[in-house]
Amino acid sequence: MDIARVCVIGGSGFVGSHIVQLLSAERYQVRVPTRNRERAKRLILLPTVDVVSANVHDEADLDHLVRGMGAVINLVGVLHGGRGAHSFSAAHVDLTRKIIAACGRTGVRRYVHMSALGAATDGPSEYQRTKGEAETLVRASNLDWTIFRPSVIFGAGDTFINMFATLLKWLPVLPLGGANARFQPVYVEDVANAFVTSLDSRPAFGKIYELCGPKVYTLREIVEVVGRLTGHRRPVIGLGGGLSYLQAFTLEVLPGRLMSRDNYHSMKVDNVSSERFPFGIQPTSLEAVAPAWLGNQAPRARYRVYRDHAGRTNLP
Questions:
Q1: What global pTM score does this model have?
Q2: pLDDT score, position 301
Q3: Sheet with 29-34, edge to edge strand ranges
């Protein structure tokens, strides 16, 4: 099977940029559609990557994007929902249906799909339900498909761990909705490795893989790890169900939408798995890599920078 050419839809995002960089390092020819080339500027310089201005929700554009490709990776997803193309239904269900149809029209057989841990058509949140509906479409297709269901994904530049780092820096006390919700965070490089490894793995055809890190945390424990690594330890006040919902509603209407009521409903289901990480990949722990970027936010890190600039790097 010749899959040397891959179209990565959603390739300019957090996870997508890691997958595209790994594909390029493995000498794949990669096509990345985007509405905003500025957002993908870090990918433009990669030698085997072609960043294309396109509207992936337009069927004619999709046909042009996937024609001649050996495989298509769909990473598009929204966490909070919105209107139009940014709604859960449009981003997760309608777009998946369009991509599958475009693959059928252009003869592309290999399709790799980003779902989410907890995806289910009867899930408590719209996010989970639309992810489940998209999986149903993929499984019903005649493509050589693989579905990945990651837990919350962390890495430098993520919007999860780094959000808490920012909150802990500025708030003296952190009220935390869903403090006892359980997660199994997975490192973005491990996710990228799984996607790329699966491309030409025939045993991966027709399989669903759950991607999780080596350790289960409550949300409170994640916040405490972030506080320890950044040097901004703060008291964490766990909120009950009613107050958690109220916090989610408040954050939903504020600029930045740090959280939504749909996120609150998602946290009713533990985001964990007992499955082994696929393809022999050893998953990376949060504590093993997060200090590389979170440690730079610790108060003492400023003094290290000052010493480095003064040439006094030998001081403890």
A1: 0.91
A2: 46
A3: 49-53, 29-34, 5-9, 71-74, 110-114, 144-150, 207-211
